[in-house]
């Protein structure tokens, strides 16, 4: 079913029907480079990028009603800035706790350099230890320059089968036309069977959106919005892709109240039989021009959210969890024209060298391609 054929009457019916499901979700199955501190110090005296008049924090209702809007709908994709954008990389940040901080915490370093000779990288990396005492709770964050990179969403082959779709020959793969400019990928959210969270890819509604879910929306122009569905609805013809998660971890720079109370069940917060767990998150800064991906090690949902906030996110949502399903990978294209994975954000992120480009993914993912 295509998004453009989806009527507003159907949307209203889904809101009424999905509300009965409740907000709890079943638990899914389970060498840094030179710091950019000098560059960021110069930038710290510049005006706040969040003051851009085309970008705003919106309040639609009380409670979970904020969203970060990266751009207006219906505009054509902007040309990529030749030497990086004024908002990238983000400023280095102070570690939340001196007691748990490690050397280099809060310093942005290049993860994916620009091939065009730009001074700023396309993707930067930083580490933070957000817990006030523990040095083991670690969040590694990738910052993505959305002014130079375009985000795209791909459902996995298992997602399509669950939705009673027959996967096509190119299902679960990066689009062939994007291989030349492919930069990186990040994992998506929980499997559809765990919570029935919404999933739309290239205007095709795979799973209808839930009214109570945190939602990442990608527009036709590559703009990104993140917030509760109540603040982002309704769908329109400019909604290219959509992915939903449990309630937003972070909104307007404030952690969800349940996280502060230690009530993290909806984010699959605890498992007595697991001593080590990875969990991932996606976030956006106040300008809407920088997307953050966070991977937490030994981090429960609260400390994952604290790490994302420290890095500069004003809104954040939890994506997939567990060792095998959490990954942020960079790609390179060799002299023979073959695109392969070149590096991972942290060690031991599970993958094959040709994953996502020749080996289809069973689970949904996002990828980033250079704007032309």
Offer a quick outline of the entry.
The protein is built from 6 helices and 20 strands. The protein is of the alpha+beta class. The protein has a 7-stranded antiparallel sheet.
Query: What Rg is obtained from the alpha carbons, in whole angstroms?
Result: 19 Å
What is the makeup of the main sheet? 7 strands, antiparallel
Low-confidence stretches: 3-63, 70-77
Our estimate of the beta-strand percent is: 25-35%
Task: Give the count of helical stretches.
Answer: 6
Give average pLDDT, whole number: 81
- Look at the helices and sheets and give the structural class: alpha+beta
Amino- and carboxy-terminal Cα gap:
30 Å
Q: Write the H/E string, N to C.
A: HHEEEEEEHEEEEEHEEEHEEHEEEE
Shape: globular
Strand order of the largest sheet: 1-2-11-10-12-8-9
Q: Which percent range fits the helix content?
A: 10-25%
Annotation, overall tally of beta strands? 20
List keywords for this structure.
372 residues; six-stranded antiparallel sheet; 20 strands; globular; seven-stranded antiparallel sheet; 12% helix; 6 helices; alpha+beta
What this model shows, in words?
This protein is α+β, with helices and mostly antiparallel strands and 372 residues long. The strands form four sheets. Strands 1-2-11-10-12-8-9 form a seven-stranded antiparallel sheet. The chain has six helices and 20 strands. The chain starts with 7 loop residues before the first helix and ends with a strand. It is globular, with a radius of gyration of 19 Å. It has helices spanning 8-18, 37-43, 157-162, 229-232, 257-260, 301-311, and strands at 56-59, 66-69, 109-112, 123-128, 138-145, 149-154, 182-187, 199-201, 204-207, 214-219, 224-228, 239-245, 250-251, 254-255, 278-284, 290-297, 315-321, 328-333, 339-344, 365-370.
